[in-house]
Amino acid sequence: MPDNGPAPLLPADFLFGAATASYQIEGAVNEGGRGPSIWDTYSHTPGAVLRGENGDVACDHYHRYPEDVALLTELGVGAYRFSVAWPRIQPSGTGPANPEGLDFYDRLVDELTASGIEPVVTLYHWDLPQALEDAGGWRVRATAERFADYARILADRLGDRVTRWITHNEPWCAAFLGHALGRHAPGTQEGTPALAVAHHLLVSHGLAARELRASAAEHGRAAEVGITLNLERLVPATDSAADRAAVDRAETLHNRVWLDPLLLGRYPDNEAETWGALADGSYRRDGDLEVIGQPLDFLGVNFYRPTKIADAPHTEPDPARRTAIDIGTSSPRFEGVRHTTMDWPVVPSAFTDLLVDLHRRYPGLPPILITENGSAEEDTDRTGERVHDTDRIAYIRDHLTAVAEAVKAGVDVRGYFVWSLLDNFEWAFGYERRFGIVRVDYHTLTRTPKDSYHWYRETIREHAAAHGTTA
Prior knowledge:
471 residues; alpha/beta; TIM Barrel; 14% strand
């Protein structure tokens, strides 16, 4: 194992895991009765994805999942977080389940449980069935209702072995990268409709949580339900009043739009300052906050880097024509720190700050799972097929240390999932950016553990040994 220093000691029952997502690794987009998703459409749109790449094959996990579970087993993780492709279960997003799709996830869950690995299932990691997008997508409430139907299908089928469910992964990306910035599927630039998307994603979370728990109760099973948010640690570029006000708007765009309805039962009080007339509330109904505010058994937090915020002119002068992401801010570059190949600044202390601030702002905060954390690196230091990814090891080690510091400060963090098990399709960046602790040769699909894989494996073993348990 490369000597990049030890990981911090975390609580004895701390859960170590690894994470992936369906469209990024599965491939087999036209097999097993799967229908098209918005990411199939978007990735085949000229100019949408770097080098015109797509997820048609990806890592071919659909056929190679036993090999990938074997990698997880050797890694020694206690849990594997993966997402289900909605169009594998309901090709058009409605109606009866596709038996072949359910059978695939049945086999995957069986393989995991036979290996002593807990399956942690994410219902939605952005691959909306295209047929639902054609009918209005997340802009319309009907999609939230269809999502609840889909959740019930999965709970009834997999709930005897899956007890931990995540409704959504990073709804910010689905709502704002996809419908305001236009850099994710479906690739539109909208104002009020993007805010409607955000709201309906939250409503769908609440409806799905009810279905997951109802299924568990009917079958005499356990079910823990959470949601994963990519929360931002936002810092003002200067101490000016304008920059501090810009941070307040950015907090609502990135964090409070989700956290306040979920945890406080109310909408952010500065929506008008953030979005102006775009936040007209036309997409809301009486009772929505009650639906959204279903109790969370845990909160998933994805974190990669902090963001610096400065006050700036709006991109679009006409308020009525602005997109939902045009809130009068800019993001100056962090200077004096290393940046990953995503050009994201590496500031591990910001992770501690985020978690401690979250704990302070939201009394009664549920336990936290770090559901994604990792780094994209060049991975050019190689001996044969072995990748000596010392920067990635340092990143993971330092962010685990940041988690440990938050735990010392009283934050209830229960686990950490590294992103990602495999190099994979990195959305609009295609296959250029590599986050995996396992290298994937995209020509042969050969998997080769990197030095970070071996370091993480040893970290898990050392943690178990320090607490007198087994890994």
